[in-house]
Automatic annotation (TrEMBL):
Pfam families: ArsC. The lineage of its organism: Bacteria, Thermotogati, Deinococcota, Deinococci, Deinococcales. Belongs to the ArsC family. This is Arsenate reductase family protein. It comes from Deinococcus lacus. Gene3D superfamilies: Glutaredoxin (3.40.30.10). Transmembrane segments: none annotated. Signal peptide: none annotated. InterPro entries: Arsenate_reductase-like, Thioredoxin-like_sf. PROSITE patterns: ARSC (PS51353).
Length: 116
Protein backbone atom coordinates (compact mmCIF):
# COMPACT_ATOMS: atom_id res chain seq x y z
CA UNK A 1 0.00 0.00 0.00
CA UNK A 2 1.19 3.51 -0.80
CA UNK A 3 -0.24 6.93 -0.02
CA UNK A 4 0.53 10.31 -1.50
CA UNK A 5 0.78 13.03 1.11
CA UNK A 6 0.83 16.76 0.42
CA UNK A 7 2.13 18.88 3.28
CA UNK A 8 5.01 20.85 4.72
CA UNK A 9 7.79 19.77 7.07
CA UNK A 10 6.70 22.46 9.58
CA UNK A 11 3.09 21.24 9.73
CA UNK A 12 2.20 19.40 12.94
CA UNK A 13 -0.56 17.49 11.12
CA UNK A 14 1.81 16.39 8.36
CA UNK A 15 4.30 15.05 10.89
CA UNK A 16 1.49 13.19 12.69
CA UNK A 17 0.31 11.62 9.43
CA UNK A 18 3.84 10.63 8.49
CA UNK A 19 4.28 8.92 11.87
CA UNK A 20 0.84 7.24 11.56
CA UNK A 21 1.57 5.69 8.16
CA UNK A 22 5.17 4.72 8.96
CA UNK A 23 4.02 2.89 12.10
CA UNK A 24 1.73 0.83 9.87
CA UNK A 25 4.38 0.10 7.25
CA UNK A 26 2.69 2.18 4.56
CA UNK A 27 4.94 3.64 1.89
CA UNK A 28 4.60 7.45 1.67
CA UNK A 29 5.13 9.53 -1.42
CA UNK A 30 5.62 12.93 0.24
CA UNK A 31 5.15 16.16 -1.70
CA UNK A 32 6.59 19.12 0.22
CA UNK A 33 4.39 22.04 -0.81
CA UNK A 34 7.12 24.54 0.07
CA UNK A 35 9.36 22.91 -2.56
CA UNK A 36 6.78 21.98 -5.20
CA UNK A 37 3.33 23.55 -5.28
CA UNK A 38 0.26 21.40 -5.70
CA UNK A 39 -1.16 21.33 -9.22
CA UNK A 40 -4.46 23.07 -9.80
CA UNK A 41 -6.02 19.76 -10.87
CA UNK A 42 -4.84 17.92 -7.77
CA UNK A 43 -6.19 20.66 -5.51
CA UNK A 44 -9.48 20.61 -7.45
CA UNK A 45 -9.86 16.90 -6.60
CA UNK A 46 -9.75 17.71 -2.86
CA UNK A 47 -11.99 20.78 -3.29
CA UNK A 48 -14.58 18.68 -5.14
CA UNK A 49 -14.68 16.14 -2.30
CA UNK A 50 -14.50 18.45 0.76
CA UNK A 51 -15.29 21.96 -0.48
CA UNK A 52 -12.79 24.79 -0.40
CA UNK A 53 -13.81 26.22 2.97
CA UNK A 54 -13.42 22.80 4.63
CA UNK A 55 -9.82 22.66 3.38
CA UNK A 56 -8.87 26.04 4.82
CA UNK A 57 -7.13 26.27 8.18
CA UNK A 58 -9.25 29.16 9.45
CA UNK A 59 -7.63 28.98 12.90
CA UNK A 60 -4.11 29.22 11.52
CA UNK A 61 -1.74 32.15 11.59
CA UNK A 62 -1.39 32.24 7.78
CA UNK A 63 -5.16 32.64 7.36
CA UNK A 64 -5.27 35.56 9.79
CA UNK A 65 -2.11 37.16 8.37
CA UNK A 66 -3.62 37.02 4.87
CA UNK A 67 -6.66 38.89 6.20
CA UNK A 68 -9.00 36.24 4.82
CA UNK A 69 -11.31 36.38 7.83
CA UNK A 70 -12.32 39.89 6.73
CA UNK A 71 -11.92 39.79 2.95
CA UNK A 72 -14.58 38.68 0.52
CA UNK A 73 -12.87 36.91 -2.34
CA UNK A 74 -14.06 34.77 -5.21
CA UNK A 75 -13.40 31.04 -5.07
CA UNK A 76 -11.05 31.40 -8.06
CA UNK A 77 -8.88 34.03 -6.34
CA UNK A 78 -8.95 32.02 -3.11
CA UNK A 79 -7.74 28.94 -5.02
CA UNK A 80 -4.88 31.00 -6.45
CA UNK A 81 -3.98 32.21 -2.93
CA UNK A 82 -4.04 28.63 -1.59
CA UNK A 83 -1.78 27.41 -4.40
CA UNK A 84 0.69 30.21 -3.62
CA UNK A 85 0.43 29.78 0.18
CA UNK A 86 -0.07 26.10 1.10
CA UNK A 87 0.01 26.97 4.81
CA UNK A 88 -3.57 28.25 4.34
CA UNK A 89 -4.67 24.60 4.03
CA UNK A 90 -5.51 22.10 6.76
CA UNK A 91 -2.54 19.85 6.17
CA UNK A 92 -1.83 17.15 5.28
CA UNK A 93 -3.86 16.27 2.23
CA UNK A 94 -3.61 12.50 1.77
CA UNK A 95 -4.57 10.39 -1.22
CA UNK A 96 -4.67 6.60 -1.44
CA UNK A 97 -5.91 5.70 -4.91
CA UNK A 98 -9.28 7.44 -5.25
CA UNK A 99 -9.73 7.90 -1.48
CA UNK A 100 -8.92 11.28 0.05
CA UNK A 101 -8.37 12.69 3.54
CA UNK A 102 -7.76 16.27 4.64
CA UNK A 103 -6.17 17.60 7.82
CA UNK A 104 -5.07 15.82 10.94
CA UNK A 105 -7.72 13.10 11.02
CA UNK A 106 -6.56 9.66 12.18
CA UNK A 107 -10.07 8.19 11.70
CA UNK A 108 -9.97 9.15 8.01
CA UNK A 109 -6.44 7.76 7.70
CA UNK A 110 -7.60 4.45 9.19
CA UNK A 111 -10.48 4.41 6.69
CA UNK A 112 -8.01 4.90 3.83
CA UNK A 113 -6.11 1.81 4.99
CA UNK A 114 -9.23 -0.26 5.70
CA UNK A 115 -10.59 0.19 2.20
CA UNK A 116 -7.43 -1.16 0.61
Amino acid sequence: MEVQMFGTKKSKGTRAAERFFKERGVKIHFVDLTQRPMSKGELARFVQKFGLTALLDMEGKAYKDAGLEYLRVTEESLLAKVLAQPELLRLPLVRAGQKLAAGEDSAAWKALLADS
